[in-house]
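Fig. S4 source data, part A: sequence.
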Amino acid sequence: MSSLLSIRGLKVEFSTYGGTVQAVRGVDLEVHKGKTLAIVGESGCGKSVTVQSILGLIPSPPGRIVSGSALFNGTEMIGKPVNELNKIRGKHIGMIFQDPMTSLNPTMKVGDQIMETLLIHGRYSKSEARARAIKLLEDVHISEAKNRVDHYPFQFSGGMRQRVMIAMAIACEPELLIADEPTTALDVTIQSQILHLLRELQIKNKMGLVIITHDLGVVARMADNVAVMYAGQVVEHGTAEEVFYKSLHPYTLGLKQALPSPAMERSQLIPIEGAPPDLFSPPRGCGFYARCKQAMTICSDNNPREFYEGSHMGRCWLHHPQAKGVEV
């Protein structure tokens, strides 16, 4: 299967007054054409920093890419000059940011904001760009698009602002769409509509899709492949079916046990005790060691290597041959 985006050995740091935060510690990811990769994990695990760094969106300073490679359609993104990145961002790679209210310019009409992308990257006249902006608003199911194109962001609800962000991101029909927490702060009904819309647009435009989320319900509904991140590393990677039904890492199991279901009593939720490690000074061993109920002596000082079952990867010493008999 052809690879659209291939990330290898990505390391990202942030210099602060308190020291250096090792936010991303050697991440490998692969996104294929027409497929959906979900990057899942709790806040602070490095999900957003990973994708923002390859697009040149982390402020430098304090951010810095220490090492790694990110090939988009065979073109290296790391270290690319801003003027070269601008030819890719928006046109070939679209991104939906977490908070549409702060991502949209409150002083510009939404139609002008969509048109801006088209005028910069496409061969459109102003009248053609306006017609295209109206069509995009219709595509994301905003009613009365001909009137709403001249409205400001504050005149839209949260769900509609998210739809405007999607319209902007797909305006130039990118090959890859990155959605960073696309359903955060939306009610359940609107969440479902947004996810259905993303799937519909992906099929229509044959896009690769990366969804960054902490919601396993979103993962189960949308993902072909899943990467579970913890403490700046990918600790498990596989198909959605493998990750959900044959989990290889205790952290993944912890996330599943903390996921409510309609049949579950409130008292049955099993939280993951403790807190993520301090990335100012990451542990020498497994990042999950302090919170893992199945931790072994080797875990404290030796970072686990990647263990594979076919293409399904788990970064955990429990899969070492000498740990045989210990269940994940």
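Fig. S4 source data, part B ends here. The first strand starts at residue 3 and ends at 16.
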